[in-house]
Amino acid sequence: MELQMTPEQAGSRIEALRKILHQHNYNYYVRSEPTVSDLQYDMLLKELQDLEKAFPQFDDENSPSRRVGSDLNVEFESFMHRYPMLSLGNTYNREELEEFDQRVRKVTGDDVNYYCELKYDGVAVSLTYTRGALTRALTRGDGTRGDDVTRNIRTIRSIPLQMQGTGYPAEFEIRGEVILPVEQFKQMNRERVARGEPAFANPRNAAAGTLKMQNSSLVAQRPLDCLFYYIPGEQNLFHTQHESLESARKWGFKIPAYNRLARSLPEVYNYITHWESARDQLPFEIDGVVIKVDSFRQQRQLGFTAKEPRWAISYKFRAEQAISRITGIDFQVGRTGAVTPVANLEPVRLAGTTVKRASLHNADQITQLDVRIGDHVYVEKGGEIIPKIVGVAREKRKDGCEPFHFITECPECGTRLVRREDEAAHYCPNRTGCPPQIKGRIEHFISRKAMDINAAEATIDQLFREGLVMDAADLYSLEYDSLVRLERFGEKSAQNLLDSIEASKQVPFHRVLYALGIRYVGEIVARKLAEAFLNMDKLMAANRESLEAVDEIGERISESVTEYFQDPLNMKLIQRLRDHGVQMAAEESPAGKSDLLAGKTIVISGVFIKHTREELKELIGQHGGKNSGSVSARTDYILAGENMGPGKYAKAAKLGIPIISEDEFLAIISPV
Ligand code: IVH
Hints:
- Helix content is 36%, strand content 18%.
- Strands 12, 13, 14, 15, 16, 17 and 18 form a 7-stranded antiparallel sheet that branches. Strands 2-11-10-3-9 form a 5-stranded mixed sheet.
- A hairpin with a 6-residue loop joins strand 17 (418-419) and strand 18 (426-427).
- Helix 12 (435-446) crosses helix 13 (457-465) and helix 16 (509-515) crosses helix 17.
- The protein starts with 6 loop residues before the first helix and ends with a helix.
- 2-(butylsulfanyl)adenosine binds next to strand 3, strand 8 and strand 11.
């Protein structure tokens, strides 16, 4: 097609494509928020490459076709990769795969076995082991240099810190993909949404965002995993790809069991066809399969281009899509007042489930896609909880289909919506009179990680409708007599509810703080605030500066916290909760202060469940002990969590130093 273009037309199209691709690269690599699918990106890139080939006069070394993007981040130190981290050529259909097979056979001239693997959709990392111990973990970066994410990688429990078995090279490098399994991803997103934080778009973004977090103790709480697929540079040690991965498995690396050796192209197709339909049954996301020439001798014959190996190719699955008609657009109002448009669809099967609703995110998204009621739309399912609409089948649009206008008033209470500067969402400002906001706040208040009051959503709805509970503090005024009179309430359920409400008065201060539902104050932030300010009065008196002096608290949180306490309605709520006996101050640290560890030197190693390393260090100090970084004859205990450093373990064993667990440590400092 491009050959029919005039050079002038081609030049302007090339320029436009470069601009678009630069923006997509930035969205993907820097912001971790891609706005197009891989397929759309690849098609744009291919169009650019074809045009550049046909019109070499527009050559430019800064063209996005000349580089592979970069995830380099100023906050991490970067290092050179010993072997560059290359990408893979993509194919989307059998013809392209056949061409790959023909190129391979032309060069190798003989029989080829292919090793088929899944293409894990996560973040690539390269790990270096020195004499079996993990010494460095780098992201891909720009392929030549990568960011040092060793501290974060060490928290991933399935990654060996020390290789197992024998026979591995003294200097060893292995590549894998850091992923977030789908179920854990969904759980994490539910928790984020409950805290009023934005949900991650898909498991890959969540994994990428997590790997780039500054605080590795927070990383340790995220259920990351790592699947390995390539050992660069060890061509002499093994003869085949499958043999190299078998060895890696013996050395302790997680090699998924789904890899298969294919002795012909039809066997490769069988593998592809199987996983294209069975991908939903996997615990993690894949975006295709990778087909590798199994023999290292043949791999050497084929070699590499500047960007990718000639001996491997990926076969990308199209994101699972369905087409359906929009019958209407509803608006949901969350507890923060944010209004989310949701499209109602004619039911359609997609990736193993029937889809009836799909998210439209916000007004900008509706305008950008020009979605109209009655339109046929493409629905896609990534890792998202609700599927999303990715495009409109314009050719199917019927005449008379009017552009859709976002609502201007709250669908629940009729209040005029507002849009805050720099935010895509519309909000209903009627905090006190808008039912879903009121109920949403109460539901959050009673949730398990907050006050842990045992009441179903339907119960809250009923109490609200009956006018008994209009805010969280009203729960504490509920009386047995008025409850038993309600429909569906028996003596037992009324008493159970009251008992559960009574018990919530013992819930510690940091959870009360979380229960208030202050924007951006999730469980961890609430804990930090409670530790730093100790009680509600001090927290209410804190200014932005003193808030930001707390570890992990930035401008966004400090603004939200001060705003919350400036509102007289919130102050009134807190006062009523206080009057009912809800905890408004942190207890002394678990066992207060003591000299139970006086004269003891303790080394901390590994990742812990109940406390962060910082907290443990503090506890040691509070009880008169000393924390030290290295094991020596003077060490009294090693406080060991998961993934204890192998060096420390060996030394402790040699010196006969007792290794205690986190629970044992806590028992020592709080004897009964
Ligand atoms: S092999 C030199 N195998 O795909 C060949 N890569 O587009 C190195 N990926 O950066 C790559 N699963 O992040 C290979 N089974 C697999 C893979 C895989 C996922 C990723 C990897 C790589 C990207 C290339």
